[in-house]
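user: can you give me the structure for this one chain? tokens are fine.
assistant: on it. calling the predictor now.
[tool input]
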Amino acid sequence: METRRVVVVSGGMSTPSSSRMLADQLAEATRRELDGLDLLADVTTIELRELAVDIANNMVTGFAPPALADALQSVKDADALIVVSPVFSGSYSGLLKSFFDVLDNTVLDGMPVLIGATGGSIRHSLMLDHAMRPLFSYLRARVAPTAVYAAPEDWGSGTQGAPALDQRVARAASELTGMMAGTRSARRPDGLQASAPFEELLAQVQGR
């Protein structure tokens, strides 16, 4: 059975953390979707609060301590990411931004990414599209169409016996899995797509 490496990045600050709870739900839903495709999920979870000091030191020294270096390598080796952040001042956390700032900005080329966020009000849900999605688009990742936001009222809510949050989680996981199914063949190790030399492309055009 083939394996897909899924790395979960949780930006939650507290214990327990609603961001970690959402991240775990997204990871488990993705695991189930991969299982349905006869693919084995190898899930690694990175808690950024445990790396906060290392990230700050890396920002000012350029050197990643061992724990942070391992986390960065896990992201580099991943077939897909699940990234969840709490909302701070209408955006993602500074700790999450700092983590991706110390990551080589070519690592996420073509990588499927599922984004999620948690906050104290549903009014902050647009943060996913005006802040998080542009971040990963800038890093040239492929972001799943469905982003999942969870406000306090989302936990256990829903109609007709089916929690609304569970429905969004399932849909997002299905999209991520669909993107991931061909990851090994779609991404080159350096993240670049192969193309023909310019002269060959020009000759093809002139020959039409």
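assistant: here you go. The chain has one domain: 2-206. The domain at 2-206 is CATH 3.40.50.360 (Rossmann fold).
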